[in-house]
Amino acid sequence: MRIVLVGPPGAGKGTQAAFLAKNLGIPHISTGDLFRANISQGTELGKQAKAYMDAGKLVPDEVTIGMAKDRMEQPDAANGFLLDGFPRNVSQAEALDEMLKAEAMKLDAVLDLEVPEDEVVKRIAGRRICRNDSSHVFHVTYKQPKQEGVCDVCAGELYQRDDDSEETVRTRLEVYHTQTEPIIDYYARQGLVVTISALGKVEEVTGRAMEALKSKVGDK
Question: Which residues does the annotation place in the binding site?
Fold first, then answer.
């Protein structure tokens, strides 16, 4: 099964992608992991990406597309994959279609995680991170620490990252609406999109997603 996962920041794409990939027995291919792997391994594409990033510039589509192509050609992706963060715009979606067509393959579904904008802001702006260990994450509403401002695990100070501020979140949402959301229409014209609500507990959303994919593509 070949799936593209889309949704606004704060929709829980990374969490859902990991659960879905495990349940479906296919690799989870995320843009973030692609960049980190290529940069740490010193690949030519990784060097190009790092040069742009170090200069504070956006990495060109062709570099991202090249990384995705290399990853999708790995043996573990022969029977399918779940793409998270790629394609990010219509140009990348068109390039993905061409890549798959060249291999006589095609996407099976595009899973759209739908979350109201106010909920996205609430989810992200409410996050608090431990200064001692960024893996210790709390939330002012959904996962409150026992003592306000103090990490339950190590007693470190909890803080809000700059990119989690409401202003920054709304800017990220605007970028999503402008650049990424158009791919939903692009894939809808191909009859590939299935939309589900990403509200509720993680396992509820996963169950909803699995049912939607099964109804869309069967037991592929």
Answer: 10-15, 31, 36, 57-59, 85-88, 92, 127, 137-138, 161, 172, 200
Please say whether the beta carbons of 30 and 23 come within 8 A. no
CATH says 2-27+74-217 is which class? alpha beta
- Write the pLDDT tens digit of every residue in 68-109: 999 999 999 999 999 999 999 999 999 999 999 998 999 999
Active site residue 161: yes
Summarised one tens digit per residue, pLDDT across range 173-216 is: 999 999 999 999 999 999 999 999 999 999 999 999 999 999 88
Global pTM?
0.88
**Residues of the binding site for ATP:** 10-15, 127, 137-138, 200
- Say whether 127 is catalytic: yes
Arithmetic mean of pLDDT, 122-142: 95
In the chain, what percentage of residues exceed pLDDT 70? 99
150 in Cβ contact with 40 (< 8 Å)? no
**Catalytic member of 13, 71, 122, 216:** 13
